[in-house]
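BUG: 3D viewer hangs when loading the predicted structure for this chain

Environment: internal workstation, default settings.
Expected: structure renders.
Actual: progress bar stalls at 90%.

Input used:
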Amino acid sequence: MKRPSCFLEITVLSAEDLRLSKRSIKKNSFVTIRTTPQTFKSTCMDAVNGSYPIWDEKFELSLPDSVTYITVEVQCRSGAGVMTLIGAAKVPVSDFMNALMPVGYLHFLSYRLRDRDEERNGIINLSIKAKVPEGYVRPVLPILGGRFQAGNKSYGGVAIGIPVSCGSGNKF
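Structure tokens produced before the viewer hung:
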């Protein structure tokens, strides 16, 4: 199913256990979020929380239809001004946009960061909410198991799950 072009509201919350050459970092870490190589946003540097930085910065980025993941990079600046990659994670779009989630649902997500050598190097904590264009109507899901359609509000609202029917043909 083709998803509409939309915007992402991404809040970079914090990170945990960031290291550089197996030593805890001291300061000056920041995050860059990329939806495409040309579309990115960066946080301010956290200069006080060391290996457990807190940013709590919110960004809005466009998400083209063709994008299947967004990239999150954590970097730090040395005293000499050199930027060094601490770790990166690829966040699949399917983790926060799929047919089973309500439009505008706020996802709190954590991802393992990997350094240049693909070694584990900390965790990044984010919240992501997809904002679809005005007038977008979500496609109706097919009837599952001959019972109800998800998204049919005449049954008390959206329900996530698959109806299960009894094998003997008895009605519930």
